[in-house]
Amino acid sequence: MTTLSIDAERLLGRLRILGQIGRDGNGKLARLAGSDADKAGRDALASWLRDTGLEVAIDRIGNIFGIWQDEANAEKSPVLLGSHIDTVIDAGIYDGCYGVIAGLEAIATLKAAGYVPARPIAVAAFTNEEGVRYAPDMMGSLVYAGGLSVEEALATIGTDGTVLGAELERIGYAGSLEPGFLKPHTYIELHIEQGPVLEREGVPIGAVENLQGISWQRITIDGDANHAGTTPMSMRRDAGHAAARVVTFLQDRARNANAPTVATVGCMSFEPNAINVIPSRAIFTVDLRDPDEGRLQAEEAALATYLNELAAAEKVKISVERLARFEPVTFDRNIVRLVEDAARERELASKRMTSGAGHDAQMIARIAPSAMIFVPSIGGISHNPRERTADADLVAGTNILLDVVTRLAAQ
Ligand code: HGY
Ligand code: MN
Ligand code: MN
User: Fold this and answer.
1) How far is the centre of ligand 1, averaged over its atoms, from the C-alpha of 371 (Å)?
2) What SS3 state is found at 189?
3) What's CA 403's distance to the chain center, in Å?
4) CA dist 48 to 32, 65, 288, 305, 405, Å?
5) Which atom of ligand 1 is nearest to the CA of 130?
6) Which residues contact 195 (CB under 8 A, 6 or more apart)?
7) 253 CB contacts (<8 Å, ≥6 apart)?
8) Per the annotation, does 95 bind a ligand?
9) Which bound ligand lies closest to the C-alpha atom of 387?
10) What is the pLDDT, as a whole number, of residue 1?
11) Are 278 and 242 in contact (CB under 8 A)?
12) Mean pLDDT of 76-82
């Protein structure tokens, strides 16, 4: 079979168009799950799915599917491609969107070439992968894989006090299909690496064989508001200072660990948040990750012990709420090998690697053999408007996705 190639202009054009949808007055991109910006992105995707002649299906958690099937193969379970089109705050244009647009591009290329797959092929855009407005992240694919009930997910209260289910209704993406209605034969997700490895090693294709564990917690520290000028240091119950000590504790542990453990405090707020008032309350989030489940548990335990000691030392009250907890995932060896074979046949170097970021693939791996393909991130930057991948790498990655899908759909 001649080696097909995708339509680079169509791929890059759609990525750019989607990348302009959901920018605020300052030009910053934020398509948070269930928002008007999310709706606008979803509407654009749905129109491209229909333009490609796919059946558009939406489930109760708002996951969008574009399905290519015919009478001959409709009985078989589909090869599923996909990722997400919701973003973080002040985001780049490739995280998630690339995998969805490239999945659609692979299907469009196969259709245009008159290819007749032995099984259906579908592309998904999973709801709320980022988890910025509603925790946990990878929520739509987690519900799809049966890891969270759809009722519980729809009842999730956001950081802005809204309810996810009501927001999905409001934007017209509260579908009627039960999540999991399409049982995938296999799942393959193309994504930017979001890290420095591929660029540093000059390798254009990552064959992702595993993904690290993730622990998200929200910590609330309660002390006493008091006068910044009159209160002696020895009499303070300073929630802000206690919070700062946790940040330093986490940084020191992760930096000094002889391990790939990473720790991040991404959100923090003080009450009453006044320049001359000792903070009575500090609320902040902790994101801990490690490819090894045992080490991740050890880091969680070390933090819990530290918080107990800190509460006594600083005379504050500390409460912890778990927001997300996902164990490390190993992807399907056969599909990883298909990625490497496809790269070799296109004379592209590839490298086996671990994903530092969470992805929908880690959830779909619970219900079907799954794997991922990475392409380099320039400067290893992501979750940042400077996120960028060279066009040639975007096209190469999509051609590898095309090859892998063709092989999977022939099985
Ligand atoms: O948090 C993550 O790794 C993903 O971007 N949701
Ligand atoms: Mn992503
Ligand atoms: Mn992301």
Assistant:
1) 17
2) strand
3) 24
4) 21, 12, 37, 51, 20
5) 6
6) 356, 357, 377, 380, 382
7) 261, 263, 299, 302
8) yes
9) 3
10) 47
11) no
12) 98
pLDDT tens readout for residues 341-373: 999 999 999 999 999 999 999 999 999 999 999
Q: 108: phi > 0 → left, psi -120 to 50 → alpha, else beta; which?
A: alpha
Pairing of the two strands 281-290 and 268-271: antiparallel
Residue closest to 225 by CA, chosen among 217, 215, 235 = 235
Position of tokens 């489930």?
59
0.85 exceeded by pTM: yes
| Cis preceding-peptide flag for 179 (omega within 30 of 0) | no
Q: What is the H or E stretch that residue 40 is in?
A: helix 36-51
| CA nearest ligand 1 atom 6, residue | 130
Task: Report how far residue 5's alpha carbon sits from residue 218's, in angstroms, rounded to the nearest whole number.
Answer: 46
User: Which residue of 31, 86, 94, 129 sits with most ligand 1 atoms within 8 Å of its CB, as the best mutation to test the pocket?
Assistant: 129
Round to whole Å and give the CA distance between 71 and 338: 28
Q: Which domains does the chain have, with CATH numbers?
A: 8-212+328-409 (3.40.630.10), 213-326 (3.30.70.360)
Task: Compute the distance from residue 54 Cα to the ligand 1 centre, in Å.
Answer: 29
Cα–Cα distance between 36 and 244 in angstroms, integer? 35
**129 ligand 1 Cβ < 6 A:** yes
Q: What type of residue is 337?
A: R
